[in-house]
Amino acid sequence: MRIMGKQAVLFDLDDTLLWDDRSVKEAFEATCQAGAEASGVDPQQLEEAVRKEARALYESYETFPFTKMIGINPFEGLWANFREGEQEEFRKLEQLAPGYRKEAWTRGLRALGVDNAELGAKLADQFPAERRKRPLVYDETFRVLDALKGKYKLLLLTNGSPDLQREKLAGVPELIPYFDHIIISGEFGEGKPAASIFRHALERLGIEPDHGIMVGDKLTTDILGANTIGMTSVWVNRHGAVRNDEIIPAHEIAHLEELLLLLEQ
After folding, report:
1. Are the C-beta atoms of residues 207 and 7 closer than 8 Å to each other?
2. How confident is the model over 186-199, as pLDDT tens digits?
3. Res. 100: pLDDT tops 60
4. Superfamily (CATH H level) for 8-19+137-264
5. Measured between alpha carbons, how far is 241 from 259 in angstroms, rounded to an integer?
């Protein structure tokens, strides 16, 4: 795949520019430490239990197919308010979220033999506060954006709930001015890898698919979606994940700054 002649770079947000995994992990560690001190359980076991219970609960709700289509994961549900978004599913999520949070933490404790709904509720409140304190960005994010700004049109294409994605961006306000357009799946009504949201992004940029390049960390959303519409895909594989041959990126990089070398080719 040639890289020449590109006019725009489309970026995914979570775990491509923002270090969301680490923010979530640290929020879990802090909250589980508090849970351990209050109940005597092992903090790491509590994190595993809560992650497991949260996932199972989240998948049991009637909103699950919608959250999957928009691209909102169970751990985002542990701190999102879901106050925005026009679809009725967002109203259901807004209603469900407080109970979901309490239940996930209470069940996680119970799985370790601690039956304490009051502590569950307390931890359910602590986790969102811990996550909000940690708007982490990769070291290289701004170096890469600085190098691209002015040379390419830049577009942010992110899956998620409108208010939550906006809140993540508000946590790192200096990120926003780099982008000509910001598209959030929960506002558009469909998430990556749907061809429709990628076409919508290209329309906003006023370019053809072969003039754009999509950069993201998820094969099943970022890379698949770009491949579907014939846009060059760049997979950011920071952790040396091994892929099968179902979804093949045009390029694979281990570090975001390698993108600059690719674009210079």
Report:
1. yes
2. 999 999 999 999 99
3. yes
4. HAD superfamily/HAD-like (3.40.50.1000)
5. 18
